[in-house]
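Review this today:
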Amino acid sequence: MELRTRVTDALKTAMKEREVARLSTLRLINAAIKDKDIELRGKGEEATVTDADVLVILGKMVKQRHESAKAYEEGGRLEMAEKERAEIPVIEDFLPRQLSKDETQAAIDAAISSTKAATIRDMGKVMGVLKGKYTGQIDFGQVGPMVRDRLD
């Protein structure tokens, strides 16, 4: 099932079951997807957002929630930090399972061998392969240094 459809179905279910917190988060997801639609139409590209685009949006939303929760904690606003943290599992419901450390290492090894990468200059090729296959399954902020270490 298409991710956009899954979000819409979850939104309808949350409305019926009166899950206020979940509904709020699902509306934010839906709004982010619609914003991307508008952005693509403005560029004259394909009018609909693909599943890969939705995965990128969801990944950014999770990262934003982590950063916001940390900032709220540092500012002494614990109730806001909890609200941000409560949104994370709702968003992650739509993301594929995250790869373990070992699976990530294996994916990096496979990407390096498939691109025949040898030096740090080939890092872009390796990251491109990883992003193509594992969007939403890997935290690319952590993978970049791992790839760099392998290619040095």
